[in-house]
Specification:
Blueprint: E1 5-7, E2 10-15, H1 17-38, H2 67-72, H3 81-110, H4 123-127, E3 143-148, H5 152-170, H6 175-186, H7 200-238
Antiparallel strand pairs: 1-2, 2-3
Helix pairs in contact: 1-3, 3-5, 5-7, 6-7
Amino acid sequence: MTPFRATPDGYEAHWEEAERTVLAEVAREVAALLRDQAGLPDGDDDPLGTLSATTQSTGTAREPEDPAALRLLPDASRDDAEVSAEFRHLTQTDLAAAKVRALETFADLVDTDHDDDWPGWDDEASAAGGLDADLGPDAGDGGIVAVGRDAARDVAAALTDMRLVIAQRLGLDTDEDVEQMHDLVVADAVDDDPVRGLDADTRRYWGGVFVAAGFAQESLVEAMLDDLRARRRSDDAQA
C-alpha cells in the first residue's frame, strides 16, 4: 500500500489486491453492523425510506447495544440521559445512514474478488465480540485506488469508522494502546489476548487491518490538506 497523492482528478494510491478486498469487506461488515444497531432497513438503497429506520415501536430511537456501534453513535451527554435520548431520537438515523452510505461507497470503490479461505474472526473471536466476517483476497498485484475529490471526505470518514470498530474489538481504548498495537504489528510480535479470547493469529490479522486502514486514512487526509494548501497558493497567486 502506497500513500495517497493528489492528481488532477482527485487522489490515488496503489493497494495490493488483498488490501483492497479485505478493507472493502470490513467496510461492508461495519455498514451492516450500523444498519442493525440503528434499526436501518437492510439492503435498502435509501436507509431513510421507512418508519422503522427512525424509531422503534415506542417512538424512541434505538440505542446501540453493541459497544462498537456505540463508538460510532455515541451518547450526546454522559450526565443527562434525557438529553442523550432526545438527541439520539433527532439525529441518529441521519448520522447512521450517512455513515452507511460512506462505508458502502468506500467498499464499492476498492472492491475486488475474494474467496473463502482468508482468515477472519474464528468462532471464539466472534463470541468475544469480533466482526462476523469471512474475508478472502485472491493473490494479485493490486492496482490503483482512485478517490475523486467529491468522495474523499466520505472515504476518510469510512476508514475512521472501520478503525473505531476494530479498535473496540481489540480493546484499544487509549492512544497508548493504539501505538502499542502499531508497534507490535510492525515488529510481527503480536501475541494472544486471553482476556478477550483472541489468539495471536486473530489479533495479528485484525491488528494489520487496523494499521493498514490507519495508514490509508492518514495519507488521504494529508493529501487532501496538501491539495488544499496548493489550491490556496494558486488562488493567491492569481489574485
